[in-house]
C-alpha cells in the first residue's frame, strides 16, 4: 500500500547516496548484517542485579566499546555466529533502564518519580507506558518510508 502512495520510497532503495549514507541499514534490511539488538543480546555481560547503578554504568561504557568491536567482527565474518549468553549487553541496558524508572529522568523534566513503586511522573505515566495510537507513517523523507509511529498516553 505504502509503495503506491509513496513510489519515491521504492526508488530510494536504488539511490547510491542513500545506500552510502545508510549502508548498515541497507545491509540489515537485506540480511547481510545483524541488527544491533541481536548483536547486543549476544555480547556477554558479567553483572549482578545487586550491583550499584554506577558500577552498571561503568560496565556499560566498557561493553559499548566491545559491542562495536564485536559487531565489526560479525560484519567481517571473523567472529562466529550469535549465541545467547546467560546475561548480555542488552540485559544490562534493560537493568539500567529499570533503575532509571526508579528515579525517572527520561524527559527534560527529570521529575525523579519512582515509577516502579507505582508513582506517576510529571507526565502522568507510570512504569508501563500506555499506547494511544500506532500507525504506519508515510509522511517522512523517502528513505524513511514507511516508518512506524507510536504515541503514548500521558507524556507530551
Beta content: 5-15%
Largest sheet: 2 strands, antiparallel
Mean pLDDT: 88
How far from one another are the termini? 30 Å
Gyration radius (Cα, Å) is 19 Å
- Helix count, DSSP H or I runs of 4 or more residues: 7
Share of helical residues: 40-55%
Unreliable stretches covering 5 or more consecutive residues: none
Number of strands: 2
Q: Order of strands side by side in the largest beta sheet? A: 1-2
Q: What is the 3D shape? A: flat
What is the number of independent domains?
1
Order of helices and strands: HHHHHHHEE
Instruction: Give the helix/strand class.
Output: mainly alpha
Structure description:
This protein is mainly α and 156 residues long. The chain is 41% helix and 8% strand. The protein has helices at residues 2-5, 8-11, 16-21, 23-29, 36-40, 53-76, 89-102; strands spanning 131-137, 147-152.
Task: Throw out a few tags for this protein.
156 residues; two-stranded antiparallel ribbon; mainly alpha; 7 helices
Amino acid at each position: 500500500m505504502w509503495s503506491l502512495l509513496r513510489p519515491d520510497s521504492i526508488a530510494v532503495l536504488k539511490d547510491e547516496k542513500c545506500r552510502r549514507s545508510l549502508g548498515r541499514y541497507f545491509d540489515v534490511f537485506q540480511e547481510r548484517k545483524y541488527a544491533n539488538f541481536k548483536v547486543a543480546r549476544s555480547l556477554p555481560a558479567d553483572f549482578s542485579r545487586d550491583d550499584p547503578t554506577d558500577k552498571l554504568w561503568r560496565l556499560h561504557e566498557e561493553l559499548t566499546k566491545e559491542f562495536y568491536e564485536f559487531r565489526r567482527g560479525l560484519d567481517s565474518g571473523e567472529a562466529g555466529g550469535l549465541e545467547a549468553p546467560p546475561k548480555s549487553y542488552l540485559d544490562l541496558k534493560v537493568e539500567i533502564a529499570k533503575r532509571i524508572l526508579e528515579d525517572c529522568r527520561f524527559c527534560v523534566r527529570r521529575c525523579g518519580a519512582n515509577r516502579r513503586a507505582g508513582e506517576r511522573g510529571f507526565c502522568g505515566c507510570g512504569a508501563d507506558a500506555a499506547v494511544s495510537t500506532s500507525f504506519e507513517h508515510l509522511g517522512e523523507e523517502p528513505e524513511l518510508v514507511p516508518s512506524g509511529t507510536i504515541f503514548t498516553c500521558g507524556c507530551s
